[in-house]
Amino acid sequence: MKQVSFTLVATDGAARRGRIDTPRGDIQTPAFMPVGTAGTVKAMYPEQVRETGADIVLGNTYHLMLRPGAERVAGLGGLHTFMDWERPILTDSGGFQVMSLSQLRKLTEHGVTFKSHIDGSSHELTPERSIKIQTLLDSDIIMQLDECISLPAERKEIERAMELSLRWADRSKSAFNNQANRALFGIVQGGDDASLRARSAQGLTSIGFDGYAVGGLAVGEPQEVMFRVLDEIVPELPEDRPHYLMGVGKPDDILGAIGRGIDMFDCVHPTRAGRHGHVYSRFGVINLKNARHKDDHRPIDEASPNSNCRRFSRAYLHHLVRTEEILGAMILSQINLAYYQELVQGARAAIERGGFTDFAAQTRASWSAGDLPLL
């Protein structure tokens, strides 16, 4: 029997509070998945990632198949053992990274042939090979191979990619072969065209998946376009399956998408922002490169539940960022990931009590009020 299941615990308008049960632990939704591209969430120990509240992390099929190689990871006990993460892992299919290599790849009905960005070696990724790689990695949630294109794009090109992704979804499902203890998610494509998105969702639903992702957003379109697409497509997705918005995003994106029925998110942004001196907090974004912080003895937020927000002065963090010390990237990445988890935890509690609209408004009002004034 398959041991991955989804339970819808509560709803508040379109917002959903749920739980994904897996053999390696439960995932409380709405959930934010820190991105461990190459088997590590950058600048973070695995236990630190867990301490932020993360139930699940994301691994990257494209990068792991190139280095160190899926077969090697399997021989070393699988990705969980390799990176010392005992809880669930979702792996993307590799499609987004391959499709971004427009000058290094050739796309056919069978799959995509591409040259490694590392050493120029040739590789082929098909729906079947993508499923095989993710299985070798021992992923708990596996994604179908799809074609993701940037927006804006011509409708004919969006339709071609969507139809190809549907055919690849069917092949991915056959290759997955109803593996026990894992889940397979389909990916809705169709750009910013409502009719194409609806056709994609209907096609995926007829094939049948354990969860449904919305792909091809946060690829260049304005936020209002992303939200419009979600308004149109989320009602087309099965209510009894998780809804995953891929590659999103910033806190306001996440808050808006939760209000439109999305359950799962991932993005490199919080750790990348931390490495560049930007901190997310209840005050919004704080740029610690700014000279206003160089003599400020106050912490980021003395009322934060995160000890790192209370422990270090802004002056010290400013110094670490300016001198490009590794410790700065570690501290700020931890603060950002913890804030993202605080955000989704707050959303879950608000949905349970029927107060998500107020929670979202209050959170946005706090961001708009901005950072603490200088003393």
Automatic annotation (TrEMBL):
Substrate binds at residues 92-96, 146, 189, 216. The keyword tRNA processing applies. InterPro entries: ArchSynthase1/Queuine_TRR, TGT, TGT-like_sf, tRNA_ribo_trans-like. Its EC number is 2.4.2.29. Residues 14-367 form the tRNA-guanine(15) transglycosylase-like domain. The active site is at residues 92, 266. Pathway: tRNA modification; tRNA-queuosine biosynthesis. Coiled coil: none annotated. Catalyzes the base-exchange of a guanine (G) residue with the queuine precursor 7-aminomethyl-7-deazaguanine (PreQ1) at position 34 (anticodon wobble position) in tRNAs with GU(N) anticodons (tRNA-Asp, -Asn, -His and -Tyr). Catalysis occurs through a double-displacement mechanism. The nucleophile active site attacks the C1' of nucleotide 34 to detach the guanine base from the RNA, forming a covalent enzyme-RNA intermediate. The proton acceptor active site deprotonates the incoming PreQ1, allowing a nucleophilic attack on the C1' of the ribose to form the product. Homodimer. Within each dimer, one monomer is responsible for RNA recognition and catalysis, while the other monomer binds to the replacement base PreQ1. HAMAP family: Q_tRNA_Tgt. Belongs to the queuine tRNA-ribosyltransferase family. This is Queuine tRNA-ribosyltransferase. It comes from Devosia rhodophyticola. The lineage of its organism: Bacteria, Pseudomonadati, Pseudomonadota, Alphaproteobacteria, Hyphomicrobiales.
